[in-house]
Amino acid sequence: MLILILVLLLALILGGAGFAVHVLWWIALAVLVIWVLGFFFTTGSGGGRGRGRWYRW
Fold first, then answer.
1. Burial tier of 8 (Cβ tally within 10 Å: 0-12, 13-18, 19+)
2. 3-state secondary structure 1-57
3. pLDDT digits (tens, 9 = 90+) for 16-27
4. How many CA atoms lie within 13 A of 29 on its CB side?
5. d(Cα 18, Cα 51) in Å, to the nearest integer?
6. Rounded to a whole number, what is the distance in angstroms from the first to the last CA of the chain?
């Protein structure tokens, strides 16, 4: 009985970790898309050195 509980607990932990990693991949993809869109939309309207950027680095 203890082995069954440990196996179920391990499956729950690994399933939760897999779901969290999947969600983090989607968040990273959304951030990348926003960054690329921001880069393209602010490139044409600055003119000067770093004046049109919406980030500091």
1. exposed
2. CHHHHHHHHHHHHHHHHHHHHHHHHHHHHHHHHHHHHHHHHHHCCCCCCCCCCCCCC
3. 888 888 888 999
4. 6
5. 41
6. 56
The answer to whether the CB of 46 falls within 8 A of the CB of 52 is yes
The count of other CB atoms within 10 Å of the CB of residue 6 is: 10
* pTM check: above 0.85: no
Place of tokens 């490139």: 43
